[in-house]
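Is this the right way to post structure tokens for a design question? Let me know if I should format differently. Anyway, here goes:
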């Protein structure tokens, strides 16, 4: 099986194994009122990135997310992979993983997959072919991925999501 590690939390900063940095983004960039934080943490014995926040739909808001550009050179070619595997834990809420390619123009467009972050660590395999298109007619272009985001979105709730590992895989 062919794997490329995106981030396995083997360092003490926000830099991924790809050399790019994780960032927190909230709906305040478009007038929303959600608040969040991104921190380095240790949860149930594993180093992780931890996203916490208050997601509110007030003022047309509704998201808190952590995002990672996959390349310093605009796009990452994931044509050799079947999808992404991630290991997460959280507060038993539903979260999304969003992919953006350089073929998407508007910030609300993405390719999405939902998962439940249980209190125990759990691995999810997310095949690219199972991503849902959101507000785009474009097919997902694996060879043109710009960034990945882990997102608390769409409803009022307290977000608490830990990420220990994320990688591309090929069956």
């Amino acid at each position: 099986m062919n794997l490329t590690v995106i981030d396995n939390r083997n360092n003490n900063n926000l830099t991924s194994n790809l050399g790019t940095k994780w960032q927190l983004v909230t709906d305040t960039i478009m007038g929303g009122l959600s608040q969040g934080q991104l921190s380095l943490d240790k949860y149930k014995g594993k180093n992780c990135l931890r996203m916490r926040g208050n997601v509110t739909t007030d003022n047309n808001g509704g998201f808190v997310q952590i995002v990672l550009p996959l390349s310093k050179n605009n796009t990452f070619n994931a044509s050799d992979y079947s999808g992404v595997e991630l290991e997460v834990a959280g507060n038993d809420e539903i979260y999304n993983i969003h992919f953006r390619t350089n073929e998407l123009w508007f910030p609300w467009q993405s390719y999405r997959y939902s998962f439940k972050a249980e209190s125990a660590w759990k691995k999810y395999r997310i095949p690219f072919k199972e991503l849902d298109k959101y507000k785009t007619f474009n097919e997902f272009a694996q060879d043109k991925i710009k960034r990945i985001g882990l997102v608390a979105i769409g409803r009022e709730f307290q977000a608490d999501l830990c990420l220990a590992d994320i990688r591309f895989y090929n069956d």
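Format looks fine. Someone answered above. Worth noting: The mean pLDDT is 95. The first strand starts at residue 2 and ends at 7.
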